[in-house]
Design brief:
Order of helices and strands: HHHHEHEEHE
Helix content: 25-40%
Structural class: alpha+beta
Largest sheet: 4 strands, antiparallel
Length: 204
């Protein structure tokens, strides 16, 4: 144990063991024990002092001089790389987050349909005379269909000399229905309609 060749140190340690070390747990010690056992007949002739106890043997020690030089300080750039993101990385991340939010906002806007601008209109439809059939006149007016046009309530209003006019309410989508065009369609019924006027109009 004190040198590479068997010695009295090995003999003292060998005799101190009651049995061979467990090879599964201590393979090196078991291999040493087996090796020394082959010299058992030569124990007295091996080098060393046989009078020393096995506990006096052990590895030689040497003083280890620990250097006092300080480890080089970590470079600031290295610290940034390990513990923080660079300005470029932060800017790229901020730009990515901004683009994602902008895309989400646009998508939410695309999913919403802007309400159509509408107007409530009251039309006066005047007949030729008191002999004009007002029910047929109204039926002709209501038969007009246009995208964005909804007819509402109506009534006959006296204008004098036994003559009555049709006053009818309607709702129109401003982008789809032209009031001038609608009046032209109504006035095309020349057998019943003399003229039309917008009595009132307001935005919804």
């Amino acid at each position: 144990m004190a040198s590479h060749a068997p010695s009295q140190a090995d003999v003292a340690s060998f005799k101190a063991l009651k049995a061979a070390p467990d090879a599964a747990k201590y393979p090196n010690a078991a291999r040493w024990y087996k090796h020394i056992s082959t010299y058992e007949t030569e124990f007295s002739s091996l080098t060393g002092d046989p009078s020393k106890a096995y506990s006096t043997y052990g590895p030689e020690t040497s003083e280890v001089v620990v250097g006092s030089a300080k480890a080089p300080a970590a470079d600031e750039d290295d610290v940034d790389d390990l513990f923080g993101s660079s300005d470029e990385e932060e800017n790229a991340e901020a730009a990515r987050v901004r683009e994602e939010r902008l895309a989400a906002y646009k998508k939410s806007k695309e999913g919403k349909v802007k309400p159509a601008a509408k107007s409530v209109v009251t039309l006066d439809v005047k007949p030729w005379d008191d002999e004009t059939n007002l029910e047929e006149l109204e039926a002709g007016v209501r038969s007009i269909e246009m995208d964005g046009l909804v007819w509402g309530a109506s009534k006959f209003v006296a204008v004098g000399f036994g003559i009555k006019k049709l006053q009818i309410n309607l709702v129109v989508e401003d982008e789809k229905v032209s009031i001038d065009e609608l009046q032209g369609k109504i006035e095309s019924d020349e057998d019943h309609v003399q003229s039309t006027d917008v009595a009132a109009m307001q935005k919804l």
